[in-house]
Each structure stands twice: as C-alpha cells, then as structure tokens.
C-alpha cells in the first residue's frame, strides 16, 4: 500500500496562524510523526518534507506519480467550528470510504478523550471540477 501524506499549506502559505503557531509547521510535524509509525509493507510518500510551496496541482501529481492507494491531507483549520472532521471526494470509491472510516475512528478514539468533538465524516471536492484528469478517489 502506498500512502501519500500531504502536510497542508507550507512556504509562503502558513495556513492558520495564532501567535507563534503556524498551521504549515503543525501539519508538517504531524505528518512526520504519522510517517514514522506506518509499518511495512505500507510505504509513505510526503508531498513536502520541509516548509516550502507546493501547488495543489503538484500535490495531485505526486499522488498520481506514486500510484497512491490513499491520499491524506492534514490541516488544523481555524474557522468553522471546533473538532475533528474527515473528508472524501463525493465520487470516492467504496474502498476509499472504508479507509476513511478506519482512519476517522482511530483519530476520534484518540481525540475524544482529549475533549475534541467529532464533527463526522464529510464529502467535498476541494480540488474542483476544472481538472477532469483528477482521479475520483482524490
């Protein structure tokens, strides 16, 4: 299994900022922690390993180039409520939805005792319809 993990934001886009905390730094740190814990035979590929700009198109190209079985993009959003939520593309394959259920359950199993609300599994097309070459699992 090939897992592409995308630490959200980076480079000139810090994401949400609060004092010295920058979303881009937090997502990169969390991505590294997850990558260290993924056991073989799974392989982890990062869309960025340092604080640099990576366009949305390049993130998609990385996932496609490595024939990813799973694409996981991490964010710490500052608006729109509190809690943890996970997304799949509206036309995601059943296997993708199954993986999301497993990951969502594992994350909420850790986060709920910490006082983080479960905002549920959701669907969204963050990439947009402008690029029909984007596979339906992305």
Description:
- This protein has 138 residues and is of the alpha/beta class.
- The protein folds into 2 domains: 74 residues, Aminopeptidase (3-Layer(aba) Sandwich); 47 residues, no CATH class.
- A 3-stranded parallel beta sheet has the order 4-1-5. Strands 2-3 form a two-stranded antiparallel ribbon.
- Helix 3 links the parallel strand 6 and strand 7.
- The C terminus is likely disordered.
Give a brief outline of the structure.
By secondary structure, the chain is α/β, with parallel strands linked by helices. Helices cover 31% and strands 22% of the residues.
For this entry, give a set of tags:
Cell wall hydrolase/autolysin; 2 domains; alpha/beta; three-stranded parallel beta sheet; N-acetylmuramoyl-L-alanine amidase activity; Aminopeptidase; about 140 residues
- Report mean pLDDT, rounded to a whole number: 88
CATH uppermost class of the largest domain: Alpha Beta
Question: What does the main sheet amount to?
Answer: 3 strands, parallel
Radius of gyration: 15 Å
| Widest beta sheet: strand line-up | 4-1-5
| DSSP helical segment count | 3
End-to-end distance: 16 Å
Shape: globular
Helix residue percentage:
25-40%
Q: Number of folding domains? A: 2
**SS content category:** alpha/beta
Pfam family, one: Amidase_3
InterPro entries: MurNAc-LAA_cat, N-acetylmuramoyl_amidase_3
Protein name: Cell wall hydrolase/autolysin
Keywords: Hydrolase
């Amino acid at each position: 299994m090939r897992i592409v993990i995308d630490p959200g934001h980076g480079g000139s886009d810090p994401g949400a900022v609060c004092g010295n905390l920058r979303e881009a730094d937090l997502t990169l740190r969390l991505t590294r922690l997850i990558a260290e814990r993924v056991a073989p035979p799974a392989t982890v590929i990062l869309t960025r390993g340092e604080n640099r700009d990576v366009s949305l198109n390049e993130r998609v190209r990385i996932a496609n180039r490595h024939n990813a079985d799973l694409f996981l993009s991490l964010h710490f959003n500052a608006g729109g409520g509190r809690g943890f939520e996970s997304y799949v593309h509206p036309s995601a394959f059943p296997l993708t939805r199954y993986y999301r259920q497993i990951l969502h359950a594992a994350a909420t199993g850790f986060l709920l005792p910490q006082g983080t609300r479960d905002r549920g599994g959701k669907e969204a097309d963050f990439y947009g319809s402008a690029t029909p070459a984007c596979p339906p699992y992305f």
